[in-house]
Each structure stands twice: as structure tokens, then as C-alpha cells.
Amino acid sequence: MAELVPIPLAVLLRRAFLEYEREGKIFDLPKSKFFLGFPGLDLSVDFHGRRASTPLGPAAGPHGQLAQNIVLSWLGGARIIELKTVQILDELKIPRPCIDIANVGYNVEWSQELKLEQSLREYVGAAMFLEILKASKLLGEDVPSGTVLDMSVGYSLEGIRSPRVRNWIAAMRNSAAIVDELRAGLDGPFARYRDLPFPACTSDTISLSTFHGCPAGEIEGIVTFLLAEMGCHVCIKLNPTLLGREEVEHLLHGVLGYHEIQLHGPAFENDLKFDEALDLIPRLQRLAADRGRGLSVKFTNTLVVKNHKSFFSDELMYMSGAPLHVLAMNLLKKFRARQRTPVAASFSGGIDARNVARAVALDLVPVTSCTDLLRPGGYARLARYLENLAAEMRALGAADIPGFILRYRNQAAAASNDAGEAGLLNTPILVDEAAADPRYRWERNKGAPRKIGSKLWLYDCIDCDKCVPVCPNDANFVYETEPRGIEYDNYELLAGGAVRRMPGGALRVVKERQFANWADACNECGNCDVFCPEDGGPYNEKPRFFGSLETYREHAGPNGFYIDWKERRIHGAFGGLRCVLSLRPRSGRAFMEQDGVEVEIRLGDNQAVAWKPRPGAASPPHFFDMLPYLKLKLLFESIGDPRRVHFANVNLPEVTDAG
Ligand code: SF4
Ligand code: SF4
Fold first, then answer.
1. Structure confidence by residue, pLDDT tens digits, 71-88
2. Going by C-beta distance under 8 Å and a sequence separation of 6 or more, which residues neighbour residue 554?
């Protein structure tokens, strides 16, 4: 299984700026989907004393994992970005696939798959990327750019207090040393940004995730530690189990009709109880206030349920999407009806373009999304969220978010012009409407993406383009090639290095647009397979390119490639066969290492001319198949095409110098 390999900041910047210049995109997100602000509307909100230009963000999950994901979230308009959860166990083996968004939304994902030190560089690098983007004015002068990166840590007091996690949080709070390390790596056209005053503090807010079954005392211990010893603002993510089993069953089965989803009893027995939460939160609010910090709560985490499907092998899985929306909303309503002191709240659970404005009208900051962003369109879906919010604000004549909350259901007078109070008054109305809305019910969410019964191969597919945007890591990419049919000969390998032609076959490439995968950014989550209409999974069947010979050798398996541009050499794995093709255009020759032999090939007409055994090879074969050679040559040429910029060619001088 491939492992995530972070992409250096300098490479990310090079790709983004070249791609924008040549194709009007950044990490495959077209500029028409960038959030550039709305004239006359102020979407900004306050989050733990910091100003964010929109109330929108990705929930801690795949969209806050790698630096390019954070940048993509930001380009789409997210301004409070929950970073993927880190924890002391940073070498977990997570089962694959781990995301199933076919309809409801389930996952068996967990925390960051990078090591703590790598996550730190990824997050600091992302923050620096955004500063450079602003300073470059690439997107214009007036992009609303107030941004908050919000750490997410888990899961136990022991882990969070461990020296490694403690040092990690401290380094996020004061990242000066990492900033200096990364700024020294800015080269070429980006060297001029070395002296930018990058903020030393990458983040001083934390959303806390706790294990199911984490007792109230432990939650209090962790929050106290984070507030008092780490000096952070804290948001406690609440679990939907706080509603109690009876209420969850009533909503999930009785109201919404998801009868096939089975609850996991122990989660309800062991998790924090509602009354405990009511006691705990005001105590922690007082502590936070004493320390000059903020304390908020989040509605909600995913719901742990029994695995009733065959997609994952685990016994349990985590439910999100439409049914979670209604559960999380109902918990918000119940909590707000009984809370002893008002507490700031954020939201996650089935948020999409159609309900985001309603969530904002409940005075929730931030309103975060994850499941919906894994659907076709990916990060581009964020644009519609903000357009819809802006349209509703305009319709009510609201110029800013507090004004919008006050006017949403004419609450201004009843709330004495207090937006927080208006959010509270809106709560029972909008929550009951959500519970009654058929769009969250099983009948509306039971379908699965269509499969058309054909299988994917290395080349060609129906070219639907879904696999690129649904990947949260932008690991899939488009490259271009000329459609062609190449008739070829195979060869008999004769004594003394001679060759004799044998009947061969034909390599046919029908489409100009082809798809490939940057394996270093692919964690095999399976999401592109769910949405690809063909069978096999783009991340399995399309050529997988690695960023180094080491990762290729370790992880290529039956499908992998590595290109050494300097040496004009491409390594390839086809099933059990590993080959290396070296191209020598000056002499008009290519040398193909395959099956213990090296075959010399004339580049002009793809004819083998001689062969020799590789040093140390066992008895050489008598037969040479030309097909792998043709595939490698074609991949080398088309991946290097400078018209498209992607991770597989961004280090090629012809690409960086072209245009
Ligand atoms: S390429 Fe597919 S499997 Fe890989 S990370 Fe992206 S969505 Fe997941
Ligand atoms: S690989 Fe699948 S999802 Fe990607 S473009 Fe082809 S058919 Fe569509």
C-alpha cells in the first residue's frame, strides 16, 4: 500500500503558479470556482477572537490533511480550516478503502496519516503558501483573506500530554523555526518571498476529538491542559450519542427511515452523558475566561454504527451526511434549550450548498463540511455554498453575518438586535424544519453512483472527469496524448545478441485526454472508485506515478511508474514485470531492461536491433514483448507534455521553462 509523501512547499508553489498561468487552475480547481468575495457583502465572522473572512470550513478530515488540500479549501472560500486530527499514534495502519460516500457517507478513517513532524511542516507550509498567494496578488488585490487554521487533536489525556504532542502543539503556536526552515527552501521565482513576514503562530485554537467512551473527567482534564498549560482556545467536539439511544433511534429509524443502520450500544453506554456535558461546559468556560481563552462546542462528530455493508472490513464504521445533519441539529436544539450559559458553537454534519445559509443563521461558527466535498466537483462545490449564502443575505437586505442572523426569521426585535440571541431563537424553528425535510430521509439518499459495467485500463475511459475533483488530495490528474494505433512486432532473442521478428500486436489509444494518479498523494481511500462509472478504481488501474525511485521500488506493486527526467529514464511495473526504459534521442536509440535482458531499440520505427543479458541475470528468456516498451515510451512523452502541469512533470525543466 502506498504511503502519503508530502510534496515540498517549493514544488507546490511552482505547480500552482504555472498551472494558473497556463490553464487558469490551481491544483485542478478552475479559477471560476475561487472565492474572491462579493461586492457589498461582509461574510466575516469572529472565531476565538480572530477574524475569518467567511464562516465556512472543511471539517477535520481529508480536506485538511495535506498542504494542497488546505490551499484548495481556501481557494473555494473556506476561511476557518480544521486541520486533520493529530495524535500520539502517528504510524497507524488504516484499512483501505476507508471512505464510502456512495450515498449516506461512511468512513473508517482516523487521524493524520503523516507523522507528527510531517504534519507540522504540512500545516506551516500551507499557511506560508497562503501568505505568498496573497503577497503575489495572483488572485487580485481584494480577496477577503482573513483565515484561521484550527488544530484538531485527539484522543486521550495521556496521548495529548505526551512530550511529542505537547511539543507539536507548541510548535504550531510558535512556528518560527519551521517557517525559517521552509523559507530557506523558497527558490527560483519564489525566492523573493523569503523575507515575507510570515506569522510565527500557525494556530492557537484546538478542536478536541475524544474516543468514544471517553469519561467526562478525562475530557475535563484534556481541556484544562489545553487551556491552562498549552494556552490554546478550545472547541470540544460532541458526539451525537449525547442525544441518547432512544432519541437517535427515533430520528434515524422513525423519522428518517434509515432502518438498515444499526446503532452500536456501547457507544451510548460509555460516552459522555447529556447532563454531564451541561455541568462540564460552564465549568470549562469559566476556566477559559480566567485564562483569557475561548471555549466552544461543536455539533457533532460522526456517529459510530455497526458495519452493515461490505465496503469496509471493520466491524464498526462512522456515519456522516444527511442523517447526521438531522441528528446534529437536534442535539444543538436540545443543548441550546438547556444550556446554563450561552456557549459559542460550530457545526458539522451533512452540510451542503443548500443548508449552509440556514446553519449560518443559527449563529454557528464555523459551519464545516466534509462528506459533501467528497462528491463530484469536490472543492468546487464550496463556491455554490457561498453563492447561496450571499444570495440569501441579499434577499434579506443583510450586509453582514450578524445582520443576516437577525433578519433570517425576523428575529431582530425579539432578540433585541442581538445576533447571538436571534441564532438561539432560530434554532427550534430551523431544526424542526430540517427534521421534517424529505431531503434528509432514506428515500432520497438510498441511491448509489451509477456503474456502467465496463472495466478501466491503463489507457482510455469514458472521460467523465469525476476522479480528479473527488480526490481530496488532488492525486488524480489529466494528461494528454495523441490518439494512435501502433502496430508492433515482438522478437525472438537469438544467440549472440541477434533478434528475429515475430508476430506482435497493436497498442491502441483512442482518447486524447488520459488520466493518471500521483501515488505519493494517494492514500488509497477509495473515493474515486466510488464515483468512477467504470470498474477497477482509477487509483488502481490508471498509471500510478511515484516521486522517487525509493517509493516506486517499495510501493509500485503491479502498477507503478517513476520518471527520472534528468536521465531520460522511466521505470514501470506491469503486473509482476518490472522494466526500465532509457531514451537516447541523440543516438536515436532506446534501451529497455526487462526480464533479465537489455534490448536495444531504434526510436524512429520502434524496431529491436540487438539484445544482451543483464549482469547477474539468470538464464535469459527467448522472447521479448514490445508492448511494455511502447507503453513506457508513450507515458514518458505524454507526461512530459508541458501543456499540462501536474505533480508528475512539475520538476521537468521543459515544463517549468515552457510558456
Ligand atoms: S486518488 Fe482516489 S483513492 Fe487516491 S486519495 Fe484520491 S480519491 Fe482516494
Ligand atoms: S477514470 Fe473513471 S472517473 Fe476518471 S475520468 Fe475515467 S471514467 Fe471518469
1. 999 999 999 999 998 888
2. none
